[in-house]
Amino acid sequence: MKNTFGNAFQVTIFGESHGDAIGIIIDGLPAGIALDFAFIQQQIKKRQPKEKISTKRHEDDAIEIVSGFFENHTTGSPLCILIKNNQHNSKDYEALRYLLRPSHADYSAHIKYNGYQDFRGGGHFSGRITAPLVVAGAIALQILKSYGIQIATHILQCYDIEDESFASDEESLQKQIQSINNHTLPVVKEETAQKIMQCIQEKAQQLNSVGGIVESIILGVPAGLGEPFFDSLESTLSHLLFSIPSIKGVEFGLGFAFANKTGKEVNDCFYYKQGIKTKTNHNGGINGGISNGMPIHIKAVVKPTASIFQKQETVNIKTKENTILEIKGRHDPSILPRVCVVVDSVLAIGILDAYMQYAMYQQLSKK
Amino acid sequence: MKNTFGNAFQVTIFGESHGDAIGIIIDGLPAGIALDFAFIQQQIKKRQPKEKISTKRHEDDAIEIVSGFFENHTTGSPLCILIKNNQHNSKDYEALRYLLRPSHADYSAHIKYNGYQDFRGGGHFSGRITAPLVVAGAIALQILKSYGIQIATHILQCYDIEDESFASDEESLQKQIQSINNHTLPVVKEETAQKIMQCIQEKAQQLNSVGGIVESIILGVPAGLGEPFFDSLESTLSHLLFSIPSIKGVEFGLGFAFANKTGKEVNDCFYYKQGIKTKTNHNGGINGGISNGMPIHIKAVVKPTASIFQKQETVNIKTKENTILEIKGRHDPSILPRVCVVVDSVLAIGILDAYMQYAMYQQLSKK
Amino acid sequence: MKNTFGNAFQVTIFGESHGDAIGIIIDGLPAGIALDFAFIQQQIKKRQPKEKISTKRHEDDAIEIVSGFFENHTTGSPLCILIKNNQHNSKDYEALRYLLRPSHADYSAHIKYNGYQDFRGGGHFSGRITAPLVVAGAIALQILKSYGIQIATHILQCYDIEDESFASDEESLQKQIQSINNHTLPVVKEETAQKIMQCIQEKAQQLNSVGGIVESIILGVPAGLGEPFFDSLESTLSHLLFSIPSIKGVEFGLGFAFANKTGKEVNDCFYYKQGIKTKTNHNGGINGGISNGMPIHIKAVVKPTASIFQKQETVNIKTKENTILEIKGRHDPSILPRVCVVVDSVLAIGILDAYMQYAMYQQLSKK
Amino acid sequence: MKNTFGNAFQVTIFGESHGDAIGIIIDGLPAGIALDFAFIQQQIKKRQPKEKISTKRHEDDAIEIVSGFFENHTTGSPLCILIKNNQHNSKDYEALRYLLRPSHADYSAHIKYNGYQDFRGGGHFSGRITAPLVVAGAIALQILKSYGIQIATHILQCYDIEDESFASDEESLQKQIQSINNHTLPVVKEETAQKIMQCIQEKAQQLNSVGGIVESIILGVPAGLGEPFFDSLESTLSHLLFSIPSIKGVEFGLGFAFANKTGKEVNDCFYYKQGIKTKTNHNGGINGGISNGMPIHIKAVVKPTASIFQKQETVNIKTKENTILEIKGRHDPSILPRVCVVVDSVLAIGILDAYMQYAMYQQLSKK
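Above: the input entities. Below: the structure tokens describing the complete assembly.
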């Protein structure tokens, strides 16, 4: 624990990759929402292995609604969604049971749970646990869409290959978002997709893996979301992003590029033209932890997949001997292509939770 | 709201810069702790304006314990601490009341609170609100010290000036931490302090401000802290860091430098030598959201102070007219020198909260 | 929502009586606990319909562990347990869909959820939702037993029939608890069981239902549990008890009998004899919201089952017409025989959650 | 801890009776509310000692707003309110420091906090801590009034004296509420006030104390408040009520009188007449944990004041010797006259918190 997140739109996650199923509870869904299952399937598909650059394991990811849904609408009661796991050959893992995989949760989880954790396939630490998050995210995205809010994420960088950054004007942004949805990989330019595919395949052949950066944009968020001091929008969104395995850095707006800038260079001056806007958006749509009506702009770094097929030095936790580990099985040499939809999903969960709290105070404040 | 953070060690913050006082409630302090007031004062002092490069406003920051402390020990009941504000001349602010300061919370807070927010000096969004956090952090640091845990933060970069990075070996680290505490500014090398002073003074003369990067290290954390899925140690620490005004990016270990690396280059291989350790620490002491016993290594970027004295374009929120703003008063051209102790403080709060939960499960798991 | 309860031992409940399954997530279980499935089954059986005085519907209540359990031990990750629902004939309910059943949640839920709630069999408001609580309670009871804590509940009163009250001495109490477990119904004296069976059958024949009182005792709780001000032990235990459908009153120790007493009559004087105890236990083991080491003594009143087969006046919520309702189907004329194990379960959940917090502070306070 | 309560309207309480001040933080107040200070003062006055039947100690209870209030309106930031304590003679308590007062928190708190608790005057367990609750309650009541919600509490029983119960029709109820506000004590009939005064004085002369029952009514609550399963309205209101020192039982509607009733006798049949109502209100306005639009009807029992001036047997916790205790100082022989406003206050806090969540879901559900 702690596997529950959110104040108004609250999700509780459970499951291990080699158990019967993984799943999620959503508590706090308004009643009467007709779920868009085609959209949910589309999002799930985005998270599934990509041809040529992913593990070949087949994942159905068929969802099963256990509760909270009746006559094609949400009921207001907790929505429980299960995704069955396929049968896995757990023997693969038994052989390496006591060999700590470098940069994995193996060691820290072993200590935390006194050796009782389900070690097969990463257990509760497996990337697979993000599949139900995508389902919850799809539902959140559907609701946000009805409020005019849109979220998109693409691979900005994969190893040494870079995609086009998000534009600063709405029209270009909309075109970019369309491209991301239509290309082979979630990138703005199709040629980047091809280069990234090639890069990942190359590293895979070298029994290696690569990292990269994903870039997100959230459009249509009204000014006023975020609950500082502690629940600043940056705080809650980063909280969610850092729960995604492999994410090791998060920045808003200019982020780390603020370091060698002056205030004069980066302050976002206000102007009035059919509403109050800022001329630039270096702060990435958030001031004082509260959305300011400009696009919310986020970047997150994804470390190279920890599972590589080269021999690595490690320790046998049982015998305490130094030894050599050779990981078998199927592992993506980069999760970048599949992580974008997960990032969209947690951002949607965070923004909807903030929106619901914002809506409550707006309503009561007017009285 | 939300001004409360933590599960076991829970803090609630309140106050505005121009009200009577600001303060904090700590709920969840174990009973029987003899507070080290000299240390608290020392920490408060670190946050106070630095000669030559800060605003000249005098801040006493004398703390007043309202509750939860008796016969020189914590009682187990909520500890409430107040810090009185000095008398401010609020008229300074009245003139600019409706002029939105660029990159400040003025606009987003105005919308969120329907114009009722206390606008003077940033109100609840003032950096001053971090003073009681430093007090709570000092208490957390004192308790963590008794568990063998140590936290240090220095200015790694200020505009184009860079300090020495934290070393990878314990001995060098301890020397660096000593240096940080003894120098004019929180930096490893005294010459960096001089350069940074000069840089900040220069920008101040240009009525400008600068950003930078702070680097933190947490030593002595046992393996096992962090409560994934959602309360991964990265999630809770970043949540706290992003609540500090001006912080726009957070990274752990290599952070954004993971982007163009391969798994082979950055995986942290385990070895056994009087305990299990990793040869490198690219993951910054956290695997799977749980501490792994290695030093926890964090960087955060601080944007240039939004308040600059040059003329800036903006909007009058009352008249909706585009206009020119000229900020008066006292504002630090860079908060880097003062923010380090705030970073130490929120990290201490987050680590102690995680430690208390870890201690609980360790104890019960053994039964 | 809100379907999550607890700080350290946290449960999240989901499901409707006519959906595929109901279930519960337990987050915060220490790792390494070997679940006692025979005991869980035994507890589930206690909640199942009793011959002659219950609905005849067959409930398997076979439990399915979805996650958090591996190699016969808890893993420290969330434990998800499902209980499949049998196939129900939902047409039964369609006919009465818009007729509000008196004293049921029909109307208040209709308004709250804008008519989208699952109305079949009470949906999320069905007593059936307490089945997974019994599973979680069984696990909590098993853990508490290892700490020397014991919980028992019996029917103290059913309509005009009264059982023997809990004794004040440990030895008699232990005998009473054994009796409760061995008798036809959860009562201290077998003759009461016979009378209650007769009473319930009689009322059933009259197409009516009856209420009553249950009495609980918690033995072996150390002094120090409870987190006042707001999480007094009375607060958290009553919070849980009042979430059980049909419970309309809760009292501790003398409870409402305190009303016409004087302090002299009811103060519990302390004495020392191999530890500090009180001569009487009018306060029911709790002083100032914190356990005092004496048995925790609670009574709760259960209203007569709202579903009765006599004709009742009501309103058609669709047409807004006054009309007559005649409920069909299977409904217990009294839930007293089945509710005792549910009461035991929520008390176990509450006590374990308090115990874990108590254990954490005890451990840290000693440092 | 835990001294924070609420999801949307969140209060955090702190302070001890012999510290400098006690106080409360309210987080989640909508911005722009002009506080009615005359009403706050009026409520505070209701909690102050009553002539002849109370301790003579003078309590100013002047409130001091530390934050969250500006230009006569709430700002949306946390409202911190302090109430200074008068100078107390703490030496009174030193003499009895190690003598456990029967039925007080002395022993349980001593164990919980390892002897470090502030023992003077009950410390954090003092009834005085309810004073800031009354301030928060007054603010909640003011807001609820603007939504058409009204709360009233009277002494229904004091020892063997009984007041008139709340009527079932709105018109009579309004007259009763007026009476309660105008009489010498919070009772419906002035003659009851006289009898209760006499009873309390009599018991006081006998160095004794008395218990009783308070009855509350909440009018104007729309159908739909309450968040089952766990946050049923009965759960959250009882949670708050049981945090008030001395309350040992809570019931809704018929409460314990349901025990010997049949469903036929007590089911509340619906009828339509300018809206859907129930003919009777045995369920006290709550069905399935959700308000049904009828008046919410609650009773709570208050145990006799534990502090009596007769000699009592007890234990010296330091020496572990059995001994005799003779309490000195000032203690109300009954808190009934003063507790009614505290009950009103916590009910207001609970209802407002539920209302805000209800308002949020209502708003979003309509989209």
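Note for the figure: The longest strand of chain C covers residues 150-158.
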